[in-house]
Each structure stands twice: as C-alpha cells, then as structure tokens.
Amino acid sequence: MNTESVAVTPEEHFQDKVNREVKIEPRDWMPEKYRQTLIRQISQHAHSEIVGMLPEGNWITRAPSLRRKATLIAKVQDEAGHGLYLYSAAETLGISRAEMIDQLHSGKAKYSSIFNYPTLNWADIGAIGWLVDGAAIMNQVPLCRTSYGPYARAMVRICKEESFHQRQGFEILLTLSKGTEAQRRMCQDAINRWWWPSIMMFGPSDDASPHTAQSMKWKIKRISNDELRQKFVDVIAEQVKILGMTLPDEALAWNEARGHYDFGTINWEEFWNVISGNGPCNRERIAARIAAHEEGAWVREAASAFAEKQRQRSGGKDEKAVA
Ligand code: FAQ
C-alpha cells in the first residue's frame, strides 16, 4: 500500500471541491482572486437590477390600464428585491453595502449596458420584458449552479421571478401586435431599437472577454458569452414569428449545418462606448441613483436610530430580534 502523503495546496483543495461540484461557502478558504471576481460580478449584477428599475419606473405613471400599472409596479419591486438579495450575497464576501454603492456612484463599478438606453414609448416596456428579461434569464439560469453557494441560492428565486417578467413583456407586445396599424408600428419600432442592445448584454465575444476562461474554470460561469448569445438568438428568432414581427438583422438565417441561426455583426464599438460611460442615458441614470441615495439618507438614519433605541431598551441582549 502506498502510504506516502501527497501535499495538497489550498488552491488545489479548492479547485478539487469546485470540480466535485461542492459549493463554496463564505467561511471556506478561497483564492483572493476568486473572491474579488465574485464581488465584481455579483455587485455589478446587483447594480444592474437597481439601475434597471429606472427605465421602467419611468412608465409606471403612464401605463395604459390599471392592470398594466399593477403588473409593472410588481415587476419593478421584484427588481429592487433582486438587488437586495444580490447585495447581501456580495456582503458575505467581506465588502459592505456602502462600499458597493460608492463604487456604483463613482463609476468604478459597472452595471449592465442595456439600462443606458431610453424607454421612448409603452411598447418599450414590452420589449424590455421580452428581450431584456429574456436575455437576463438565459444568462442567469446557469448561474443557479454557480460555484459560490450564496450567489447560486439567490439566483434560484431571481430566475423564478424573471420568467414572470418575460411573460408580461411578451404579452404586452402580443397585444400590440394584434392592435391597430399604429400599435403594430410601435411594436416593430421597439423591437428594432432593443434587439441589438439586448444581444450585447451577454458581454464581449469570447475571444475579447478577459474574465471568461478563469471564471469557467472556477465554475462561476458555466456557459460562455457567445454560447449564451447564440442560444438566445435561436429562441427569439422563433418567438418573433408569433408576434408577426421581424428582427432588424438582414443576416439572420437558419443554418442547417450548424443547427443554429446565423446573425449579423454586433457593433462592438457601441458596446464599449456604452460600458465606458458614454451611452445615451449613462449620466442620467447615475444622477438619478445619486439623488435617490441622498434623498433616502434620512430613512437610513431613522432606521439606524430606531434599531439603536430598541437595542438599548433590550439592554443589548436581544440584538438579533431588533436587527
Ligand atoms: N454591460 O470578461 P467579460 C437584468 C464588462 S440583470 C456592462 O465577459 P464577465 C435584470 C465586464 O463587467 C443584467 N458591462 O466579463 C433586469 C468586464 O468589465 P470589468 C445583468 C459588461 O464578468 C431586467 C468587461 O466587460 N446581469 O437584466 C457587459 O466574465 C430588466 C469584460 O467582460 C448580470 O450581471 C454588459 N452587458 O462576463 C432588471 C449577470 N458585459 O468588470 C431590470 C451576471 C461585459 O472587468 C429590468 N453577470 N461587461 O470592468 C455575468 O454573467 C457576467 O458578469 C457578464 C460579463 C456575462 C455580464
């Protein structure tokens, strides 16, 4: 019998756990770069949910019926909830909520490119639900199996809610597509404007993505940016037929040999421009977030003062109950 012990480094032990599909939990040893990558990705994901409330929030007061208004309010509230689960998941990695918010406001942390485009009319709310939430789900379902436990668990609930979001968007467009000529034109116009930005959401192509290879090795990401984008194109190219509309891409065509739809070239210059702060609404979005944060300061102060008062009343014994 070979009794020789083989020295295993912490990195090897960690990678072995990842390979065996054992979830990494907050108190487990992890490489510093793994921790930093997760903080980056989870916090940017949280920021996307919170900034993503803005383009839709813009239409709550103008929704065309009580039913549409109630549904849109519920969707936007879900997004606030997703942001909160995700900030909490990121906090387990040792960063505070305040630091993450500062990084968003200072421009150090990114949020999804898609939320820098304007919502010009009601059909845009349908297009966001169908295309933006659709792309989000395609990217997020594999994240339910991501290697970091708190992130994976947060994603399960988020994905359930996202699928309702996508259905509400598709239903808005389906209604418009059966409406008057003007409503059909609105529907097509919204699809035309949201299509390319939606497929940019998956990130740069694999050969231009600096983080994909390592994130796949650590099983943070399970499927690459280009593979997810292709899956999304294949689904949407079929669904658009139900609407009787088209996607604004002349190169879109079924490729029998590949078993996938071919599609045209993405304008990567636009993508990099938007994520470096120069999209149509970047400044407006950050200004709105900073104003909301400043206007909400008194709420945070009041909540802290109340918690402190409760703590003192209980003689500091029952901190959990008042937290
Ligand atoms: N926008 O090497 P990669 C939603 C950055 S939630 C902005 O490929 P990675 C729900 C990337 O951060 C939507 N930046 O990076 C909703 C990196 O820059 P950095 C958000 C982007 O991380 C619906 C650089 O480019 N979802 O929509 C984008 O491996 C409706 C190089 O890229 C998530 O965050 C982009 N689109 O892959 C809410 C999902 N793409 O950080 C309201 C979780 C790339 O080095 C209404 N995140 N960049 O400065 C992920 O899956 C990944 O982080 C990717 C990027 C796939 C987004």
UniProtKB/TrEMBL annotation:
Gene3D superfamilies: 1.20.1260.10. It holds the Pfam family PaaA_PaaC. Transmembrane segments: none annotated. This is 1,2-phenylacetyl-CoA epoxidase subunit A. The lineage of its organism: Bacteria, Pseudomonadati, Bacteroidota, Chitinophagia, Chitinophagales.
